[in-house]
Amino acid sequence: MEFTQRLPSEIFISIFKELDTKTLHSLSLVSKGCNTFAMDNHIWNHVALNRWEGKQGMAEICSEPHELWFKKAGTWRKVYSIIEQEARRSELNTDDLVETTWRFKFNSFPIPHVGSPNFHRDGIYTHNGMIEGQLPWTFTKEGQVRVDQFPPLKPFRSTTDWSLKMRNIHVTFVSTDHNCFRKKLYHFNLKLIEELGLDPSHYILHPPKPSFGLSNNSNEENHDDDDGNDQESMENNNENNNEGNENEEMDHIMVLPTNHVFHDDDDDDDNGDNDQNEDNHFVIFLSFQN
């Protein structure tokens, strides 16, 4: 008798829920009984929800019941694999840029957020509260994103919270929400329903809609440096240091309106007087292009 049949299945399910994905994969090759438990939807449901907790773009997915994924053996494991593959994707496409809510900051200034940047599908970039009018944006042949004549932005994904990021030597864009995972699962669900011969109207299959506007996520400030050890971050930091030692040609001047002036309350001025009128302040940001 196989050892998995010597104890109630509930015990093995409880044990397998505590295992990591690599161990589950190894156990699936041991025997038919182990394979059954290692592919069990309830086990992978538990593993997936633990893995997805706190990841950007996954809150809505985690909150849904997903009865559909329990209707076929191995479905939760397949869904887990789809999400993992998407979480490792760093290159961006037009949908990613257009359907993502972005926030923007300067790398060299202690301002957590400036304005509301938006990439439009017609190749137009707008930035309310930062610039007036419109600027063109495009992809470079290397897959980077160029806005007007500014240095191209190198895209990458946070390994901590799965947010999307773009960075050059001057600025960083960070997503506050995106549709990457929802879109993947929407198409997966459509195929699964067709495969099982089910009625789509009985399940949540509304296509993910892009949302614009700033997120109220209280953890936003912690996302700026969560990938300090990422290769992309290190490369850009090195570029930034090297650029500081080279001659630069001024390319753009941006002036922030007074309502975007940043006051650092922790840094007292020489006179110890921080009660200056905000209307008397303005900030000019210079962007340089080699």
From TrEMBL:
PROSITE patterns: FBOX. Residues 235-244 have a biased composition (Low complexity). Transmembrane segments: none annotated. Residues 222-233 have a biased composition (Acidic residues). Pfam families: F-box-like. Gene3D superfamilies: 1.20.1280.50. InterPro entries: F-box-like_dom_sf, F-box_dom. It comes from the Eukaryota. Residues 1-47 form the F-box domain. Residues 209-246 are annotated as: Disordered. This is F-box domain-containing protein. It comes from Glomus cerebriforme.
